[in-house]
Design brief:
Number of domains of chain B: 1
Radius of gyration of chain B: 20 Å
Number of helices of chain A: 2
Largest sheet of chain A: 5 strands, antiparallel
Structural class of chain A: mainly beta
Largest interface: A-B, 62 and 71 residues
Helix content of chain A: under 10%
Largest sheet of chain B: 9 strands, mixed
Number of helices of chain B: 15
Strand order of the largest sheet of chain B: 3-2-4-7-1-8-11-10-9
Oligomer: heterodimer
CATH superfamily of chain B: Thiolase/Chalcone synthase
Structural class of chain B: alpha/beta
Order of helices and strands of chain A: HEEEEEEEEH
CATH architecture of chain B: 3-Layer(aba) Sandwich
Shape of chain B: globular
CATH topology of chain B: Peroxisomal Thiolase, Chain A, domain 1
Shape of chain A: extended
Chain lengths: ~170, ~425
């Protein structure tokens, strides 16, 4: 890989500079987690719950405290299937189990039956370039669900019937 | 509708660079104001009624810099206001100045936007925005390793790469299309005196040869961190005729917000499943065009400056603000429609992709679009510009500002 061509720089004389530090003090960020109690309880029993707004029928997964469209508190829990699809994705560089830095896919998942999306992971051995939007996924549960976010350990791809269909017609997706 | 018709009469910049080591913040802003006043010879410091300024909070390490640099910006004993809305700070300053004049409160307003990023650490500023949100995750039982990995693809470039992924899926744009946008911007920047990354000889191959920084964006496609300042004089219609040969009338403004990014409020997830959908931009553009009496933006807008730190955003914004039909922008860039001598030139100053002094960036868009109407831009387009658009994006990844300008005052409907 070659570096980019050098850009035309203007040089400036250095003025007197004083170095200083600014440490962030502690602060209290307040948040309301009342809505997640039922949700996390559901995860413990391997159930995926979405929160539905009765006014506009929007299902949010993860649950939201307030519906932005109707300004009401959604309060109807619905059971969602274990399947999902990729809403968007990218790659991040991190160390793997052999301490080598390599790209990992990072994805936003839309659980089937919900209208919002959420960041999650794929198994480590998947190439970040092979993911595409709309790729079907299935929840991979943690070994012992404890009622935490981590109970949805990650998502694993399942066969996409659309790929076969498109092949037959001779078009690519 | 505006009570008084506001108009831009003068615009000034300081030289932008990665490190303006020769000046401090006040001196840097002063350079921009002096350049601005030079372009309006009949205006003196004392004629300015009000000063509106702003930058990103805490990005320079110094908080509330406007309070100690009052002397440098001639704001002593004058109404003075600071506006700061993240990435759109500049756009919001322009809109605030518009409101100040349009309401009939002040006659001549000095709008200022600046950023000296080399002084401080951007992370300090970002931490005050995002850290609180992220601290909730461990509370919900999200393990730290996972959090680090997922949020590592976050921040501004994270959301841009998500947008890029979706845009490429929608329109079939390739990485070569993204590189073409970068090449156009960097070559345009070489012709603009104040721009930062001037690369007159850059090619598509050069850009595609750099490593990925966040898939699908490569190192060569990413905007720099810049020191710089911009100033503009906004005044009433009557005074504008005395101050400038071709005053630029601000005919429409829009500022709309939409859903936040992927994480959402208090881990609520994102309602915007497709990050490149950008309903806020569509709405904001609609309102601004409506005020300016523009029905067919793709035909009536002669020049556009869009806020695009990353090339996929430039393609996305020109479609969302109605300049091109959906998914046709890559083809238009290929055919040279948006080039300096094309039918609809876009970002002839090099755009945010070549110069990104964050607080100032969103204001450099409308000011540069205004200069193109005045005929005073560094990289002046060969065609005559009657109507132009300046767009800004930022906030919590969702606030969008629009300023629509023309060489004639707002059309009054009876």
């Amino acid at each position: 890989m070659s570096p980019l061509p050098p850009y035309e720089k203007t040089t400036y004389v250095k003025t007197r500079t004083l170095k200083a530090n600014w440490f962030l003090g502690s602060y209290r960020y307040k948040f309301n987690l009342s809505r997640t109690k039922v949700f996390l309880e559901g995860l413990k029993n391997k159930k995926i719950l979405g929160l539905k707004c009765r006014s506009c029928n929007t299902v949010s997964f993860p649950p939201r405290l307030i519906c932005g469209r109707c300004l009401v508190k959604p309060d109807q829990w619905v059971l969602l299937p274990e399947t999902a699809s990729i809403a968007t994705g990218s790659a991040t560089y991190d160390e793997d189990d052999k301490d080598r830095e390599r790209p990992f896919p990072v994805i936003a998942v839309r659980q089937d039956g919900s209208d919002t999306c959420w960041v999650s992971n794929l198994p480590d051995d998947i190439d970040f370039k092979s993911i595409y939007i709309g790729m079907p996924l299935k929840v991979n549960w943690a070994e012992k669900p404890q009622g935490l976010w981590n109970d949805i350990f990650n998502y694993e791809p399942i066969p996409d019937p659309a790929v076969e269909l498109n092949k037959k017609e001779g078009s690519h997706s | 509708m505006a009570k008084v018709q506001p108009a831009i009469v003068g615009v000034g910049y300081c030289g932008h660079a990665a490190k303006r080591s020769d000046v401090n913040m006040g001196e840097m802003v002063n350079e921009a104001i002096n350049d601005c006043l030079k372009s309006v010879p009949s205006l003196e410091w004392k004629n300015i009624d009000c000063v509106i300024n702003g930058n990103m909070p805490a990005f320079e390490g110094a908080n509330m810099p406007e309070l100690w640099m009052t002397d440098h910006i001639a704001a002593k004993n004058k109404p003075f206001m600071r506006v700061t809305t993240g990435g759109t700070t500049g756009g919001s300053i322009m809109i605030a100045a518009y409101y100040a004049v349009a309401s009939g409160m002040y006659d001549t307003v000095l709008a200022l936007a600046f950023e000296q990023q080399s002084c401080g650490n951007t992370t300090v500023g970002l931490a005050s925005v995002a850290l609180g949100e992220f601290s909730i995750f461990p509370d919900l039982g999200y393990d730290y390793d996972k959090l680090r990995r997922n949020m590592g693809a976050g921040a501004a470039i994270g959301i841009a790469s998500y947008q890029g992924m979706n845009y490429m899926r929608r329109s079939g744009a390739t990485e070569e299309d993204l590189a073409r946008v970068v090449v156009q911007n960097r070559r345009n920047a070489a012709k603009t005196w104040w721009a930062h990354l001037k690369m007159p000889t850059i090619t598509i191959e050069d850009v595609l040869d750099t490593p990925y920084i966040s898939y699908p964006l490569r190192y060569g496609m990413v905007c720099p961190a810049t020191d710089g300042a911009v100033a503009a004089i906004i005044t009433t219609e009557e005074k504008a005729k005395d101050f400038a040969d071709i005053p630029v009338y601000i005919n429409g403004v829009g500022s709309y917000s939409n859903e936040t990014a992927i994480v959402g409020i208090d881990c609520g997830g994102a309602g915007q499943v497709d990050p490149c959908e950008q309903l806020g931009a569509v709405k904001s553009a609609e309102v601004a065009y409506g005020q300016a009496g523009i029905s067919f933006p793709n035909k009536e807008i002669d020049y556009a400056e869009v806020y695009s730190p990353f090339p996929n955003q430039e393609l996305q914004w020109v479609e969302r603000v109605g300049l091109f039909e959906p998914n046709t922008a890559p083809e238009a860039y290929k055919n040279g429609v948006t080039a300096w001598n094309g039918e609809l030139p876009v970002n002839c100053s090099g755009g945010v992709n070549s110069t990104n002094a964050i607080g100032a960036s969103a204001m450099e868009r409308p000011t540069e679009a205004a200069l193109q109407i005045m005929g005073k831009a560094s990289n002046q387009v060969p065609k005559t510009v009657h109507t132009s658009l300046g767009h800004g994006w930022g906030g919590a990844i969702s606030l969008i500002t629009h300023v629509v300008m023309a060489d004639e005052p707002q059309r009054k409907f009876k």
